[in-house]
Every structure is written in structure tokens, then in C-alpha cells.
Specification:
By secondary structure, the chain is mostly beta strands. The chain is built from two helices and ten strands. Helix content is 14%, strand content 39%. A hairpin with a 3-residue loop joins strand 6 and strand 7. The longest helix has 15 residues. The protein is globular, with a radius of gyration of 21 Å.
Length: 135
């Protein structure tokens, strides 16, 4: 009987720590419309812009959940292309309620100053063609 009770307690404890997979999907838009290479946008200085390349890095992800608990994903980097709708998988956390996802545009200073060739070829911070080298 004690073994059955112990098994039930262990099972109940494990179910209290359910993992939640957190991901972020980027939906590029210009003036509320889906991004299109042929769309002319106007900036805040009333200058027309026509994009020929739109690539940028996202890093420094953190998720605020369950009443203000913050979980950081410092090792997640994404190289985002303007003509794609990427889903960035941040990882799993113990959370019941996701309140906010924060991130930086760009690369954190230690990796910004590091050698991009030190990353495996498939990594977002590895050398790219056309170049995304930030040095």
C-alpha cells in the first residue's frame, strides 16, 4: 500500500511541473498589410522606401509568465528574413500563463565582438552569403 501511495505522490508531483513549449512567430507587415518586396513604404520623414533586402538578428529572448516570473533564453539567436514568416522556438519552461515575450533586435555585445567563424555553419551567427557580418 505504501508503494502505491508513493507512486501516486510521485506521479502527482510530476504532473504539477508540466512543460510548456514557447515559440514566437514573426509576421512582417507594412502599414498593416503583409510584407511584399514591391510595396513602397513611407517613413516618419515622409520618405518613400522600397526594400531590396531585409534581414536582421533577434536575441536576448525572455518570457514573463505566471505573475511576473521571467525566464531568459540567452543562447537563442535568430536570423530573420523579411520575406519569410519564421517561427522561433525558444524552448520549454514550467508555465501556466505566458504574459509577455521580450527580445532585442541585434546581437549581444560578447557575440557581436566574437569571431562568426567560431559558430557551426548552420548557426544563425555563422558567416552568411550575402554577408551579415556585424564586425
Amino acid at each position: 500500500m505504501k508503494k502505491i501511495l508513493l507512486i501516486l505522490v510521485v506521479f502527482a508531483s510530476a504532473s504539477c511541473f508540466a512543460q510548456t513549449n514557447v515559440s514566437l512567430t514573426i509576421d512582417h507587415q507594412i502599414n498593416g498589410e503583409p510584407f511584399n518586396w514591391s510595396t513602397v513604404a513611407t517613413n516618419n520623414l515622409d520618405t518613400d522606401l522600397l526594400f531590396t533586402r531585409l534581414e536582421y538578428y533577434l536575441s536576448g529572448f525572455s518570457v514573463t509568465h505566471d505573475g511576473g516570473v521571467v525566464t531568459s533564453f540567452d543562447e537563442v539567436y535568430a536570423l530573420v528574413q523579411g520575406d519569410e514568416t519564421p517561427t522561433i522556438n525558444l524552448g520549454e519552461i514550467n508555465a501556466d500563463n505566458i504574459e509577455m515575450i521580450s527580445f532585442r533586435v541585434g546581437v549581444d555585445q560578447p557575440n557581436n565582438n566574437a569571431d562568426p567563424a567560431s559558430w557551426p555553419p548552420s548557426a544563425p551567427l555563422a558567416p552568411k552569403n550575402p554577408s551579415m557580418h556585424w564586425g
